[in-house]
Amino acid sequence: MGSALTAIGLPVALGIIMFGLGLSLTPRDFARVAKHPRAVIIALSCQLLLLPVLCFGLVLLFNLPPVLAVGMLLLAASPGGTTANLYSHLFRGDVALNISLTAINSVIAVVTLPLITNIAIAVFLPGDETLGLQVGKTLEVFAIVLGPVLLGMLIRRWRPGFADGMDKPVRIASVIILAVVIVGAIVSNLEPLLENAGRLAGITVLFCVLSLTVGYFVPRLFRVERPQAVASSFEIGIHNATLAIVIAQTVIGSVEMSLPGAVYGVLMFFIALAFGFGLRAADARASARPRAAERTP
Fold first, then answer.
1. Whose CB among 132, 205, 224, 238 lies 3.0–4.6 Å from 219's, allowing a Cys bridge?
2. Tens of each residue's pLDDT in the chain, 297 residues
3. For the chain, first and last CA: distance in Å?
């Protein structure tokens, strides 16, 4: 029952999530990059180049078994999740930039995700030809990622009123289905999950913290404004763990490879929340200093 729920429910949940993203997108969201080109270029560079390198270093540092190592890099190669928009809104980030980054990242991931995953498999599982994302499986990734998004965008273009009306129900449905599917996935894979939870908790927490930190402070180093840096932080720190799990289980056919995404998918919400409150506290302290200095005789 659990495995059937996972096999059917996970792709359905991901499809609904990506369809909901498409319903919220217009061509302007892709064109908006011209407004903040520096923020977009830096965020994408961190996401596509720096994070896989950092993840590779963490995998070696934690000495993960080969299949879990590939699972971590599959997670690192996954684009930002749509939940990043909510966190960005809560902590005063540029939500419009989040939407644009998610849209662009989802398109680029069709190429970069299979590439990074295949490199990871070649490094950690050399000679295993059954696990790679060859042309057929890459096309499957393309359909999983972009198919629902394009459908949602077409519906928004043709029936904008319907798209606006469906936005909230689709969001609620995706959360409910995803929660049911995660419970089913945990139940059906309880033994390997418990067996690896200890070794995966440390690396996934550290990877999430590093992703959020890189996403905020690297743009700030390049003088990107705070709202855009906050958007970048949550876009980079909140990966689409559902996509990583779906590709591992349904495209590649490895439950064990999906475990890093499953652990990360649960922990990232709490870590991102703590990080957001940390940013807010730091901003409060920074704004309090000038006022204290003014009151000092």
1. 224
2. 445 455 566 667 667 777 776 777 677 766 666 777 888 899 999 999 999 999 999 999 999 999 999 999 999 998 887 778 778 878 888 877 887 888 788 788 888 888 898 899 889 988 665 555 555 655 666 676 677 778 887 888 888 887 777 777 877 776 676 666 666 666 666 777 777 777 898 999 999 999 999 999 999 999 999 989 999 999 999 888 878 888 888 778 788 888 898 888 888 889 999 999 999 888 778 766 555 555 555
3. 72
Query: Hey, which residues does 80 pair with through a beta bridge?
Result: 239
Interatomic CA distance for residues 159 and 234, integer angstroms: 30
Q: Quote the radius of gyration of the chain (alpha carbons, Å).
A: 19
* Per-residue DSSP letter, 225: -
Q: Do 133 and 77 meet the contact criterion of CB atoms below 8 Å apart?
A: no
Tokens for 161? 């009123």
State the amino acid at position 109 in one-letter form: A
- At position 281, the amino acid (one-letter code) is A
Q: Is 223 left (phi over 0), alpha (psi -120 to 50) or beta?
A: left
Length of the chain in residues, anyone?
297
Helix (H) or strand (E) holding 249: none
CA dihedral (70, 73, 77, 79) positive or negative: positive
Say which DSSP state 34 is in. Answer: G
224 DSSP 8-state letter: -
What's 238's DSSP letter? S
Angle (deg, nearest 10), helices 135-158 and 2-23: 50
Largest pairwise CA distance in the chain: 73
